[in-house]
Amino acid sequence: MKTEREFFSSSAMPWRAGPQPGTSEKILSRNELDPEILTRLVRWEPGLDTSPSGLIRHEWVEEVYLLEGSLHDLTLDETFSAGHFAARPPRMPHGPYRTSEGCVMLEIRYRP
Hints:
By secondary structure, the chain is mainly beta. 0% of the residues lie in helices and 47% in strands. It contains no helices and eight strands. Strands 1, 2, 3, 4, 5, 6, 7 and 8 form an eight-stranded antiparallel beta sheet that branches. It is globular and about 40 Å long.
């Protein structure tokens, strides 16, 4: 299970380097026994392009809500902006992505 936390201000948390170059994150909650299972804010810097990594797949459910900026899906050739939402089951291919202006998203991961 994710760590129990009552309301707190995420604005007081510092941004830390994310696992991918060009990203930073604020981990809001995490399952310490399964660290891929988390809720976080993730920020992509302007100009980030994930195409060198190809399609993205992972073993958890992922829900993403764009809070700021925009993200261009290179496979779909479609741009998504603040207010767009995605729900992805395990192993669903998605991306790669490019963002010219950068973006901030809320990401929630869990296992089915």
